[in-house]
């Protein structure tokens, strides 16, 4: 009977090394798969704001009050509220700004309370019948034009819509320190 003789490999560790390499590769692939299972949803969550509109707020007309509220001699300051969405957060009825509303030549007018110079708050000085920014001592006429001070332009007019029972204002912010009224997106 013929005797088969298996010869030993030239390198006795070759079989062991190829098994070890296969197992190392398999365990590495398994670990990478498990890591991807955890990291892929986390990466998708973190990348969500990059592909979607993540902020919203005061693009629409915001209710300011009833028309009869503004039948006064002096301007009326109103706070404007809107829902804000910022990435994953939604805040209900947050104050987005304020405006002065008054009648001028029979029509309602809305002016922003933000000074066009550096963004300070503008007050109405009833005794003088004018608007005043105390930060850098700018005076504005009752209709919002600069009378004196460093402001490069008059108070910013806001779009106003008057309906039978509601006055609404489209609140916007504008670039400060410029002579031209430029909306900030």
Task: Produce the secondary structure layout.
Elements (H helix, E strand, L loop, with lengths): L13 H38 L3 E2 L4 E5 L10 E11 L2 E16 L2 E6 L10 E3 L4 E4 L4 E3 L5 E3 L8 E6 L4 E4 L15
Integer count of domains: 2
In terms of DSSP E residues, the strand content is: 25-35%
Helix content: 10-25%
> Which topology of the largest domain does CATH recognise?
Rieske Iron-sulfur Protein
Largest sheet: 7 strands, antiparallel
Judged by helices, strands and strand pairing, the structural class is alpha+beta
Report the uncertain regions. none
Mean pLDDT: 82
Radius of gyration: 34 Å
Which CATH C-level class of the largest domain is it? Mainly Beta
- Total number of β-strand segments? 11
Strand order of the largest sheet: 1-3-4-5-10-11-2
Distance from N terminus to C terminus (CA atoms, Å) equals 94 Å
CATH superfamily of the largest domain: Rieske [2Fe-2S] iron-sulphur domain
Coarse morphology:
elongated
The arrangement of helices and strands along the chain is: HEEEEEEEEEEE
Oligomer: single chain
CATH architectural name of the largest domain:
3-layer Sandwich
Helix count equals: 1
């Amino acid at each position: 009977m013929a005797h088969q003789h298996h010869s030993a490999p030239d390198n006795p560790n070759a079989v062991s090394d190829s098994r070890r390499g296969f197992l190392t590769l398999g365990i590495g692939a398994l670990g990478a798969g498990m890591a991807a299972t955890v990291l892929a949803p986390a990466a998708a969550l973190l990348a969500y704001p990059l592909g979607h509109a993540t902020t919203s707020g005061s693009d629409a007309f915001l209710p300011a009050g009833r028309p009869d509220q503004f039948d006064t001699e002096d301007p009326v300051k109103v706070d404007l509220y809107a829902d804000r969405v910022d990435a994953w957060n939604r805040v209900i009825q947050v104050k987005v700004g304020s405006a002065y509303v008054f009648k001028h030549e029979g029509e309602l007018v809305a002016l922003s309370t933000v000074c066009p110079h550096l963004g300070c708050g503008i007050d109405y000085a009833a005794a003088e019948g004018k608007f005043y920014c105390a930060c850098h001592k700018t005076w504005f006429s009752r209709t919002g034009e600069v009378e004196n001070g460093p402001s490069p332009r008059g108070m910013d007019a806001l779009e106003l819509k008057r309906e039978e029972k509601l006055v609404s204002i489209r609140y916007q912010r504008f670039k400060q320190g410029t002579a031209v009224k430029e909306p900030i997106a």
